[in-house]
């Protein structure tokens, strides 16, 4: 399975760490994000993620793409939290989201989807005796990540088409084509899975 739009090929140490080990590192990082209570701690995690991007030799254009998606969301959450609660909690929540999104994106950039699926299947193999189907869950992980990449690509293409037509400010001109193309992609994916007999049993 080839996943266009997520993995960035490279030879850094982060690229070479096995997918299973890297996934456990991501879970550990997420635990720190949840448990550390102070804004300065969360700021340290964000700085650490930024350093890791440089360490993994991710091109600035890919980092900028992530920032364009994450920063408006974080800014919105910050303003809502500040309005409803207080400044310190708004800082903590916003920095938590920023650190989590950055780390998760870095994981997908440095991990091939095939390696992740294999790691999931291998890790869940001992649960086979309890009725767990590792292959199905591995496929689910792969399809989920592929769906994220596909919707992101459709949104970017729709935005570019909207810009070319000079109607950047129209919400309906963006939302309707995005929904139509997303549903069409889902139908094509469903037909492809059905053609391979997946989901028949």
Automatic annotation (TrEMBL):
GO terms for cellular component: plasma membrane
Residues annotated as transmembrane: 20-36, 43-60, 66-85
Primary location class: membrane
Membrane topology: Multi-pass membrane protein
Matching Pfam families: CbiQ
Keyword annotations of the record: Membrane, Transmembrane, Transmembrane helix
Compartments (UniProt record): Membrane
PANTHER family reported in the protein's UniProt record: PROTEIN ABCI12, CHLOROPLASTIC
Protein name: Energy-coupling factor transporter transmembrane protein EcfT
């Amino acid at each position: 399975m080839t996943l266009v739009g997520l993995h960035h090929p490279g030879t850094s140490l982060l690229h070479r760490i096995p997918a299973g080990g890297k996934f456990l590192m991501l879970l550990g990082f997420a635990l720190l994000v949840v448990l550390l209570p102070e804004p300065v701690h969360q700021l340290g995690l964000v700085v650490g993620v930024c350093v890791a991007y440089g360490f993994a030799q991710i091109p600035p254009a890919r980092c900028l793409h992530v920032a364009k998606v994450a920063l408006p969301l974080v800014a919105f959450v910050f303003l809502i939290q500040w309005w409803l609660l207080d400044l310190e909690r708004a800082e903590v929540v916003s920095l938590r989201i920023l650190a989590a999104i950055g780390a998760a994106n870095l994981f997908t950039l440095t991990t091939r989807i095939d390696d992740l699926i294999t790691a999931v299947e291998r890790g869940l193999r001992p649960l086979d005796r309890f009725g767990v189907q590792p292959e199905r869950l591995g496929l689910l992980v792969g399809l989920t990540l592929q769906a994220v990449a596909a919707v992101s690509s459709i949104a970017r293409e729709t935005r570019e088409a909207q810009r070319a037509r000079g109607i950047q400010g129209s919400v309906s001109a963006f939302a309707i084509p995005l929904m139509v193309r997303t549903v069409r992609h889902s139908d094509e994916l469903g037909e492809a899975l059905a053609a391979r007999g997946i989901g028949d049993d």
